[in-house]
Amino acid sequence: MTISKNEAKMILVSDLNTSLDLIKEINYHRSSNIITYSKNIFLPITHICQNNCGYCTFKQDINDVQYLVMDKNKVFNMIKQAKDFNCTEALFAFGESADKNEQVLNKLEEFGFESMVDYVYFLSENILQNYEMLPHTNMGIIERDELRKLSEVNASMGLMLETTNKKLLKTIAHKDSPGKNPEKRIKFIKNAGQENIPFTTGLLIGIGETVDDHIESLFTLRDLHDKYGHIQEIIIQNFKPKPNIPMNDYPEPSVIELLKLTILASRMFPDVSIQIPPNLNRNLMSLFVLCGADDVGGISPLTKDYVNPDNKWPTVNELEKNLKTINYSLKERLPVYEKYINEKYLKEKVYEKAIKLQKEIN
Ligand code: SF4
After folding, report:
1. E strands, 155-250, where?
2. Taking the model in full, what pTM does it have?
3. Ligand 1: residues whose CB is within 6 Å?
4. DSSP 5-64
5. Could you tell me if 122 and 113 are in contact, meaning their C-beta atoms sit under 8 angstroms apart?
């Protein structure tokens, strides 16, 4: 469905009656009452990061870290545990450009690798060869040739756009975060599209951006998806204040604002899943689903959300029970969505494993 920026704005500033009409329309046209999730293990490979975002709890100071880079024995032990829970996604998370730090680079060299990308390639390849799981890597901005290399052994990759508003590079949110320059992130998402990488991205809501920024950000993603067709899901992620972060006294975005954004995203992206993190919106998931969300992302039965450590994931049973109240049900998916399981989007090493796992979860 094509929609103009004016129509998008009307949705975001609509009154209650108009919003209710839009919700009715979404649910009238909806073709499925299934909400998807991926059963994952969250592996924070390093907490070192070149950026300093005002809302971050993931980054750790180099002098305080428990480990500089998670070693392979720990990774594979965790993967073995994940298999006991039938997880199918190994989610690798990182601070950005960690290997620009000399101590991190020395640690990688001690492990036998020249860069973080080389190490992630090794881990991903090993997981593909030895375990019934698929790697998904979120490592911040890397070069196009590095993306290409990782796509040989990853089922999907991700990077939040967060916002197209460059002014935030001068505010508490991003003033010390060169990697959050929207131009760099748009280029990265474009590179992933040119490499045919099934891709996860999204908006971070409540860090100082405006309604017009939300529209601009969604239209930018629409444009990228129209050109490359690789965006499989868009996350609408709400900022949560936490103690010990520079933005600890920032207000959370309102629920109404988030619901209207979900309506807009679902109208603009009928061909892309709209994901709402269930641990950040625990009692509201059914409402978001009625507004067009159709995915709850990765849920780990054994690791926490290291990006929002205070917000525990709901269990699958809890989510199922909530969704049942609105006549929806939950279904497991892989980190790569079924429509991207083909030879255009998945390289040989990943494709066969994805086909096998898809059959098992169907
Ligand atoms: S890029 Fe990510 S890990 Fe780094 S400071 Fe920002 S939010 Fe934290």
Report:
1. 156-158, 199-205, 231-238
2. 0.96
3. 49, 51-53, 56, 58-59, 95-96, 177, 179
4. HHHHHHHHT--HHHHHHHHHHHHHH----EEEEEEEEEEEEE---S-B-TT-SS---TTT
5. yes
Q: Cα–Cα distance between 231 and 249 in angstroms, integer? A: 33
Pairing of β 89-94 and β 134-138: parallel
Average pLDDT, the chain: 95
CB 209 within 8 A of CB 168: yes
Give the number of domains in the chain.
1
Locate 22 and state its tokens.
Answer: 């839009």
**CATH number of 340's domain:** 3.20.20.70
State the number of CA atoms in the 13 A half-sphere of 97 facing the CB: 12
Q: State the pLDDT confidence band at 334, using cuts at 50, 70 and 90.
A: very high
Range of the domain at 145: 5-361
Pocket test for ligand 1, best of 49, 50, 306 (most atoms within 8 A of CB): 49
